[in-house]
Design goal:
Layout: H1 2-32, H2 47-65, H3 68-77, H4 85-104, H5 110-137
Length: 138
Amino acid sequence: GSKTLKNFCITWIIVCIALCVILLCQLLLRSQDQSTVIERSNNSLDMVEMSGFVCGYISCVFYLGSRFPQLYKNFQRKSTEGTSYLLFALAMMGNCTYGLSLVLKMPATESSRTLYFLHHLPWLLGSFGVLFLDFFVS
Protein backbone atom coordinates (compact mmCIF):
# COMPACT_ATOMS: atom_id res chain seq x y z
CA GLY A 1 0.00 0.00 0.00
CA SER A 2 2.24 2.82 1.21
CA LYS A 3 5.21 1.81 -0.98
CA THR A 4 3.00 1.75 -4.07
CA LEU A 5 1.54 5.13 -3.15
CA LYS A 6 5.03 6.55 -2.60
CA ASN A 7 6.20 5.25 -6.00
CA PHE A 8 3.08 6.65 -7.65
CA CYS A 9 3.65 10.08 -6.07
CA ILE A 10 7.31 10.15 -7.13
CA THR A 11 6.36 9.15 -10.68
CA TRP A 12 3.65 11.80 -10.75
CA ILE A 13 6.09 14.52 -9.61
CA ILE A 14 8.59 13.50 -12.30
CA VAL A 15 5.87 13.57 -14.98
CA CYS A 16 4.72 17.03 -13.84
CA ILE A 17 8.27 18.39 -13.87
CA ALA A 18 8.88 16.93 -17.34
CA LEU A 19 5.65 18.46 -18.67
CA CYS A 20 6.55 21.86 -17.19
CA VAL A 21 10.02 21.73 -18.78
CA ILE A 22 8.55 20.76 -22.15
CA LEU A 23 5.98 23.56 -22.00
CA LEU A 24 8.61 26.13 -20.99
CA CYS A 25 10.88 25.04 -23.85
CA GLN A 26 7.98 25.30 -26.28
CA LEU A 27 7.12 28.78 -25.03
CA LEU A 28 10.74 29.88 -25.39
CA LEU A 29 10.97 28.46 -28.91
CA ARG A 30 7.67 30.08 -29.78
CA SER A 31 8.81 33.51 -28.57
CA GLN A 32 12.11 33.19 -30.49
CA ASP A 33 10.21 32.16 -33.61
CA GLN A 34 7.98 35.27 -33.61
CA SER A 35 10.09 36.85 -36.34
CA THR A 36 9.12 34.09 -38.77
CA VAL A 37 5.44 33.79 -37.93
CA ILE A 38 3.59 31.70 -40.47
CA GLU A 39 -0.12 32.31 -40.86
CA ARG A 40 -2.03 29.28 -39.63
CA SER A 41 -5.68 28.44 -40.07
CA ASN A 42 -8.10 28.91 -37.18
CA ASN A 43 -8.79 25.17 -37.04
CA SER A 44 -5.21 24.03 -36.55
CA LEU A 45 -3.56 23.66 -33.16
CA ASP A 46 -0.02 24.67 -32.43
CA MET A 47 2.24 22.64 -30.14
CA VAL A 48 1.55 24.76 -27.04
CA GLU A 49 -2.23 24.45 -27.43
CA MET A 50 -1.92 20.72 -28.02
CA SER A 51 0.26 20.42 -24.90
CA GLY A 52 -2.46 22.26 -22.99
CA PHE A 53 -5.08 19.76 -24.16
CA VAL A 54 -2.83 16.82 -23.28
CA CYS A 55 -2.22 18.29 -19.82
CA GLY A 56 -5.96 18.91 -19.47
CA TYR A 57 -6.87 15.32 -20.24
CA ILE A 58 -4.08 13.94 -18.02
CA SER A 59 -5.33 16.21 -15.25
CA CYS A 60 -8.88 15.00 -15.83
CA VAL A 61 -7.86 11.34 -15.55
CA PHE A 62 -5.90 11.87 -12.33
CA TYR A 63 -8.54 14.19 -10.88
CA LEU A 64 -11.31 11.68 -11.52
CA GLY A 65 -9.07 8.87 -10.32
CA SER A 66 -8.42 10.67 -7.05
CA ARG A 67 -11.89 9.80 -5.73
CA PHE A 68 -11.77 6.05 -6.35
CA PRO A 69 -9.42 5.19 -3.44
CA GLN A 70 -11.84 6.86 -1.01
CA LEU A 71 -14.84 5.17 -2.61
CA TYR A 72 -13.07 1.80 -2.43
CA LYS A 73 -12.07 2.36 1.20
CA ASN A 74 -15.63 3.32 2.15
CA PHE A 75 -16.98 0.27 0.31
CA GLN A 76 -14.51 -2.11 1.98
CA ARG A 77 -15.19 -0.74 5.48
CA LYS A 78 -18.91 -0.25 4.77
CA SER A 79 -18.47 3.05 6.59
CA THR A 80 -17.58 6.68 5.93
CA GLU A 81 -15.93 7.05 9.33
CA GLY A 82 -12.89 9.30 9.19
CA THR A 83 -14.00 11.05 6.02
CA SER A 84 -13.72 14.83 6.20
CA TYR A 85 -17.14 15.99 5.10
CA LEU A 86 -16.05 19.63 5.10
CA LEU A 87 -13.29 18.79 2.60
CA PHE A 88 -15.77 17.08 0.29
CA ALA A 89 -18.42 19.78 0.74
CA LEU A 90 -15.92 22.52 -0.17
CA ALA A 91 -14.56 20.47 -3.08
CA MET A 92 -18.10 19.90 -4.34
CA MET A 93 -18.93 23.61 -4.14
CA GLY A 94 -15.66 24.47 -5.89
CA ASN A 95 -16.23 21.95 -8.69
CA CYS A 96 -19.83 23.04 -9.12
CA THR A 97 -18.99 26.74 -9.40
CA TYR A 98 -15.97 26.05 -11.64
CA GLY A 99 -18.01 23.88 -14.01
CA LEU A 100 -20.84 26.41 -14.03
CA SER A 101 -18.40 29.24 -14.79
CA LEU A 102 -17.26 27.35 -17.89
CA VAL A 103 -20.85 26.67 -18.96
CA LEU A 104 -22.03 30.24 -18.31
CA LYS A 105 -19.13 31.72 -20.33
CA MET A 106 -20.20 29.73 -23.39
CA PRO A 107 -20.50 31.88 -26.54
CA ALA A 108 -23.90 32.73 -27.99
CA THR A 109 -23.39 31.46 -31.54
CA GLU A 110 -23.82 27.74 -32.18
CA SER A 111 -20.57 27.28 -34.15
CA SER A 112 -18.53 29.07 -31.49
CA ARG A 113 -20.31 27.12 -28.75
CA THR A 114 -19.28 23.75 -30.20
CA LEU A 115 -15.63 24.80 -30.51
CA TYR A 116 -15.68 26.30 -26.99
CA PHE A 117 -17.17 23.09 -25.59
CA LEU A 118 -14.52 20.94 -27.30
CA HIS A 119 -11.71 23.21 -26.07
CA HIS A 120 -12.97 23.04 -22.48
CA LEU A 121 -14.07 19.40 -22.44
CA PRO A 122 -11.31 18.02 -20.15
CA TRP A 123 -12.01 20.66 -17.51
CA LEU A 124 -15.76 20.17 -17.76
CA LEU A 125 -15.35 16.40 -17.42
CA GLY A 126 -12.99 16.85 -14.49
CA SER A 127 -15.14 19.27 -12.52
CA PHE A 128 -18.54 17.71 -13.13
CA GLY A 129 -17.17 14.13 -13.04
CA VAL A 130 -15.57 14.65 -9.65
CA LEU A 131 -18.72 16.39 -8.43
CA PHE A 132 -20.67 13.27 -9.45
CA LEU A 133 -18.19 10.97 -7.65
CA ASP A 134 -18.22 13.18 -4.54
CA PHE A 135 -21.94 12.53 -4.17
CA PHE A 136 -21.11 8.84 -3.77
CA VAL A 137 -18.32 9.55 -1.28
CA SER A 138 -20.57 11.68 0.87
